[in-house]
Amino acid sequence: MRWLVTGAGGMLGRDTVDELARRGEDVTGLDHTALDITRHEAIERAFTECRPELVVNCAAYTAVDDAETDEDRALRINGDGPRLLARACAATGARLVHVSTDYVFAGDARTPYPEDHPPAPRTAYGRTKLAGERAVLEELPEASAIVRTAWLYGVHGRSFVRTMIDLESRRDTLDVVDDQRGQPTWSADVAARLADLGPHLGRGACGVFHATSSGETTWYELAREVFRDLGADPDRVRPVGSAAFPRPAPRPAYSALAHDRWQELGLPPLRDWRTALHEALPRIRKESPS
After folding, report:
1. 138 vs 95: CA distance, rounded Å
2. Is 113 one of the catalytic residues?
């Protein structure tokens, strides 16, 4: 099949292109300079050149804090862009996998959010990502899937895990938030799941799926685990509350997602977050951020 990956310059986009190429798929990856998903003519040109059968939309406005004062631009990229992609897919018979986020939820649960839990975003970023979800499902209901993920880290680009690796060598002690819970997730694992899901679209699979690692933890415990893997003393990491790091956009106190829908496709949930981290860390340390 012919695949088109948008946002291919980002962490998840690059991993998705690499995963599809590894599987021998015919894949074209376009970053935001090559394809602006907010422009109809740019999408039309890309579809004409690539003739995709499956599209994975990794393009997004991800500056969570900046979105609080730049919501219009965030909405164009996170809401209008996915709608235009979905319309192009509908017109050409292509299928669409659209990547979304845990920020569509309120973040006040105590157990993992199921796929059908009512969204209630509390940030501009969350509102714009929810707009994109709804646009895709409206325009392409039978041939699209929304894949929500969270707490991503990877070999490419910046992430919390890479920041902890850097700070371990430069700080004697480190204060890290201990009152936010979620699922640290390796972008390479999500990329593999996106590749798994694509061929099922239009053949009984559609709607919302969650792709985060199994288990859950806090940023504080994640930092300690990174330190352990680096051979450093985890007690150098000290727990603090979110109030110690005020941000324009409030972070969800609870971000864990449930994974029940994968059973419909005969696929297991993603592996435990610790197992993934132990495998990913040497690769992240080897690569310079880009």
Report:
1. 14
2. no
The answer to whether domain 2-157+184-215+256-271 has CATH 3.40.50.720 is: yes
pLDDT tens track for 122-152: 999 999 999 999 999 999 999 999 999 999 9
Residue 268 burial (C-beta neighbours within 10 Å; 0-12, 13-18, 19+): exposed
The residue ranges of every structural domain in the chain are: 2-157+184-215+256-271
Alpha-carbon distance 138 to 265, whole Å?
A: 23
H/E/C letters for each residue in the chain? CEEEEECCCCHHHHHHHHHHHHCCCEEEEECCCCCCCCCHHHHHHHHHHHCCCEEEECCCCCCCCHHHCCHHHHHHHHHHHHHHHHHHHHHHCCEEEEEEEHHHCCCCCCCCECCCCCCCCCCHHHHHHHHHHHHHHHHCCCCEEEEEECCEECCCCCCHHHHHHHHHCCCCCEEEECCCEECCEEHHHHHHHHHHHHHHECCCECEEEECCCECCEEHHHHHHHHHHHCCCCHHHEEEECHHHCCCCCCCCCECCECCHHHHHHCCCCCCEHHHHHHHHHHHHHHCCCC
28 DSSP β-pair partners: 4
Q: Which residue among 61, 125, 153, 220 is the active-site one?
A: 125
Which of these, 257, 191, 154, lies nearest to 56 by C-alpha position?
191
* pTM to 2 decimal places: 0.97
Q: Which residue numbers in the chain have pLDDT < 50?
A: none
Q: What is the CB neighbour count within 10 angstroms for residue 45?
A: 12
